Amino acid sequence: MRPILFVDRDGTLIAEPPDHQIDSYEKLRFVDGVVPALLRLRDAGYQFVMVSNQDGLGTEAYPRESFEGPHALMMQLFESQGIVFREVLIDTSFPDDNALTRKPGIGLVLHYLKDRSVDWTRSAMVGDRPTDNAFARNLGIRAFQLRNGEFGGDWDWAGIAHALADAPRTAKISRNTRETRIEVEVDLDRAAEPRVSTGIGFFDHMLEQLGKHGGFALTLSCEGDLHIDEHHTVEDCALALGQALREALGDKRGIGRYGFDPSEGSGPVAGNGGGHGFTLPMDESLASVALDFSGRPYLVFEGTFRSERIGGLSAQMVPHFFRSLCETAGINLNLRVDGDNDHHQVEACFKAFARALRQAIRREGNELPSTKGLL
C-alpha cells in the first residue's frame, strides 16, 4: 500500500497572484521549498494527486488557452526534477454552483476510495485555504495548511515533508475475543522500557526481551482465560503483536527487511546440523534466527525442550507463539535452538529473535527492498 499526497495548485505549488488567475507565463512562480519537499516525499513512497478549483475555467473571463500554457510549463518543470503527478484533477465550476466536484466536495476523487492500494492512514492533503482543510476532513485524511498572508496556516513545505517522511512508525491494536482482551502499542522509532502484563510471569519476561533487545517501545496488556490454560493468552498476544508490527511498518519502504546479521552473528548452531543467522548465546544454550519481512508467513523451528513447562508457560507454546506472530506480521522465520536448560533456551530464542527484528525494521533509506514493488 502507498500513501497519496493530495495537493492544491494555486497558492500551494505555485504562488497565487492578487487576481487569483495564473493566466500568463509572467505570473508563474513556485512556492518556496516545494520542489525539495516533494522530492523527499516521493522518496518516502508518496504518490501525488493535484486537486484544484479553477473558477470558470473555459469561460470568456478565463479562457482555457490562457491557463494551459503556464500550467503545461509548470508540469514540465516538475517532471524535469523527477516529480510526477499520478493525476491532475481540476474543477471548473463557480462557488454558487455548489458542485460536488468542487472542493471541499470530494466528487473528483471518489474513485480513489475504491482503490485498495492506497494507504489512507498516511495519506494527506496540502493546501492554502480552509476549503482544503475541509476537503481533507471529508476524505478522512490529515490536512496541512500552508502559511500565507491571506488565509493563515501553520506550515511550510519543509515542515510538511518532515512530518510525513519522518513520521514515527507506530501502531495501537485492540484485540477482544471471548477468551482474551488485549491492548498493544508499538513505536518502532523510540526505545523505551517495555511494559507488559499478561498474567504469566515468565511470558511477560520473554515479551519484555522483544522490546528491550528489539530497540522499540512496547506496551502490551492482556486479560485472558488463564483459569482454563495459557493457550489463548499466548496465541492472541502473538497475533496482536504481529498485527501491530505489520501496521507500524506500513509499506515497509526503507527497512532492512532481513534480520540475520552475518557480520556479527553468523555460524552454525551446535547440535542442529548447521544453519546460519543471528546467533546468540545464553549460558550453555545457543539460538540462531534468520527472518524476512516478506509478507509471506512461514516458520521453521528446530529445538527440543526437556520440561513440559517453563515457569507458568507450556513448552509447546513457544514455537506456537512464533508461528502465530509470523502469521499476522508477515514474517518468514527460521529459528533453531540447542542447550541443556529450558529456561535458557527459550530466553535465547526471544533475545535472538529480538536482535534480528531490530536489524530488519531498521530504516536504511527510502527504497522498497523488493523487486516486486510490494511487500
From TrEMBL:
Region Histidinol-phosphatase, as annotated, extends over 1-168
Q: Which reaction does it catalyse?
A: L-histidinol phosphate + H2O = L-histidinol + phosphate; D-erythro-1-(imidazol-4-yl)glycerol 3-phosphate = 3-(imidazol-4-yl)-2-oxopropyl phosphate + H2O
What residue spans carry the region label Imidazoleglycerol-phosphate dehydratase? 169-375
Molecular functions (GO terms): histidinol-phosphatase activity; imidazoleglycerol-phosphate dehydratase activity
Instruction: Give the UniProt subcellular location, in the record's own words.
Output: Cytoplasm
Residues of the active site are D8 (nucleophile), D10 (proton donor)
Q: What is this protein called?
A: Histidine biosynthesis bifunctional protein HisB
- Which stretches are transmembrane? none
> What family, per the record?
In the C-terminal section; belongs to the imidazoleglycerol-phosphate dehydratase family.
Q: Which residues of this UniProt protein bind Mg(2+)?
A: D8, D10, D128
Q: Which cofactor does it need?
A: Mg(2+)
Q: Which UniProt keywords apply?
A: Amino-acid biosynthesis, Cytoplasm, Histidine biosynthesis, Hydrolase, Lyase, Magnesium, Metal-binding, Multifunctional enzyme
User: Is Transcription regulation set as a keyword in this record?
Assistant: no
**Species per Swiss-Prot/TrEMBL record:** Marilutibacter chinensis
- Which InterPro entries does UniProt cross-reference here? HAD-like_sf (IPR036412), HAD-SF_hydro_IIIA (IPR006549), HAD_sf (IPR023214), His_synth_bifunc_HisB (IPR020566), HisB_N (IPR005954), Histidinol-phos (IPR006543), IGPD_sf (IPR038494), ImidazoleglycerolP_deHydtase (IPR000807)
Hey, which pathway is this one from?
A: Amino-acid biosynthesis; L-histidine biosynthesis; L-histidine from 5-phospho-alpha-D-ribose 1-diphosphate: step 8/9; Amino-acid biosynthesis; L-histidine biosynthesis; L-histidine from 5-phospho-alpha-D-ribose 1-diphosphate: step 6/9
EC number(s) reported in the record: 3.1.3.15, 4.2.1.19
Q: Is Coiled coil one of the keywords UniProt gives this record?
A: no
